Amino acid sequence: MWNNHSIRQSRNLNAPNGQPNRMFNYPELWGSCNFICDVHQDDINVAPTQVTFRTPVCCDPDLYDILIGVMADDSLSYPNTSDEALALYRHLHRRVLRMFNMQ
Fold it and tell me: What span, in angstroms and rounded, lies between the C-alpha atoms of 97 and 67?
């Protein structure tokens, strides 16, 4: 089940250790408190109308154009699965490194 794994103790005193599900459901056992804030469905529904997205491109526009060009040159398409996304990322990463003589 998700979040039933154990997070081991760290040297970082601010990083708690334990099982995420238990830490979430019983924060007082870790010296914390419940910070959950109930949100009305109307507020959730209106939230997307209150946001202005800068651009649909998720990275630098110049880099995006380069990556789209590499995909076209190599006859690659957008991924449909996480495995395909990882393979595409690795391919593009290698190609960009070679383009800029960094590999």
Answer: 12
